[in-house]
Amino acid sequence: MPTKPMKNGLHVLGFFKSPISSVSSFFHRYTPPVKILLAMSGGVDSSVCAFLLKEAGHDVIGVRFALWNDPLAPAHAQILPNKCCTTEAAFRTQQVASSLGIPLHVVNLERDFKRIVVDRYLKELRLGLTPNPCVNCNRDLKFSSLLALAKKLHCDGVATGHYARIAKRTVEGKPVFRLLQAKDKTKDQSYYLYRLGQNALSKILFPLGALEKKNVLSLARHFGVPIDEQYRESQDLCFFPEKSPQAFYGRYLKKELREGSIVHRDGTKVGTHRGLPLYTIGQRRGLGIGGLKIPLEVVGKDMRRCRLIVAERDTEQAKTIRVKDLTWTSAPPANRAILTCRTRSLSKKIRGSLTFRGKAGVFTPIRPLPLQSPGQSLVLYRGEEVVGGGFIAP
Question: Could you give all domains of the chain from N- to C-terminal order, each with its CATH number?
């Protein structure tokens, strides 16, 4: 496998054996170079992926997706540095592709992104849910588009800068691809990928899955990838330019952003809320309720009467969590399975049992949990493996 000396005389294949070997071993059935379509955002992660794949001897084609920009957002907000799809990111993508001699395709997904991600997000907010648009975006837009383009360009596989891993095993003579957590547990993104199935996992490569973030930043400097002096990770929600979603809600949820009563479970009014989409089940801070001896938390929403329902903290807990739209990364487990779950991407895993029928199920944790937010994802694990998940039901 070819190597070339880098700036300081090191060979990357010798210096970072683990990620490079994972890049190569995934395509063991091919003789390098193989043809890989790489999603390139202009960020540090995807740029380092480009260098790693080229250094491993693969034939790399880049693609940058042009996503939806809010046409109603003020112009000054569009230049915030922590958002993707900016002019600066597009320029960096072109810089990296040119330096490596990688052909770069630009695919406009604005209309699809608006329909699949933004419109669905707003619809769920209107229903009183707390949606997680990233999981839908990954499966239904980004990876589906990436795989479709890869097929059109006759690529052997696709790669992204996600922090996750894929392992292959053979079951009854057939290959099974397992989605695993990343080595760097503080950056692990496997939670957001639980809706990917075998067809997708069999074609995806995550070159950064065996690396820690500090290694990626070292590689970026080693390869000469531009890093801003005040480098910050991009936030999960990329489709509004402001730091918080309140202004975005003001543009698209004007009817829903109306004041209403904050009421205790017993019906006593204890305050006034600023609009139900701004609150989530389990929220304890920012309620604007002062002068109470016992802190309160949000335990429900009355959408019809525009009321936010609160109760004393920790007095209401979830003994079971209902889940809908269950999907599996490989064959589903038995109808009753002992697994662990997460209801936030980097939260502590909770052990419990899942019973399900079809796409609906109930997860019973070993101990009661704080109330969970309907619309968020409950992701199921067996050890480091992501086995599937679904959306928390009201």
Answer: 12-161+207-223 (3.40.50.620), 258-312 (2.30.30.280), 317-392 (2.40.30.10)
Q: Within 10 A of 59 (CB to CB), how many other CB atoms are there?
A: 15
Give the three-state DSSP class for 158: strand
- Cα torsion 368, 369, 373, 378: sign: negative
Give the SS3 label for residue 308: strand
Whether 211 and 16 have beta carbons less than 8 Å apart is answered as yes
Distance CA(63)–CA(142), nearest Å, equals 11
Place of tokens 């950056």: 187
Angle made by CA atoms 382, 134, 333, in degrees to the nearest 5: 25
* Active centre residues (catalytic): 137, 238
Contact indicator for 306, 276 with CB cutoff of 8 Å: yes
Torsion, Cα 116 122 128 131, to 10 degrees, reads 50
Q: In DSSP terms, which residues pair with 165 in a beta bridge?
A: 180
Residue type (1 letter), 126: R
- Cα angle for residues 210, 215, 219 (degrees, 5° grid): 110
Q: What is the pLDDT along the chain (394 residues), one digit of tens a residue?
A: 333 333 333 334 333 444 444 444 444 444 567 899 999 999 999 999 999 999 999 999 999 999 998 889 887 666 554 456 677 888 889 999 999 999 999 999 999 999 999 999 999 999 999 999 999 999 999 999 999 999 999 999 999 999 999 999 998 889 999 999 999 999 999 999 999 999 999 999 999 999 999 999 999 999 999 776 655 665 567 888 888 888 999 999 999 999 999 999 999 999 999 999 999 999 998 898 876 667 899 999 999 999 999 999 989 999 999 999 999 999 999 888 999 999 999 999 999 999 999 999 999 999 999 999 999 999 999 999 999 999 999 9
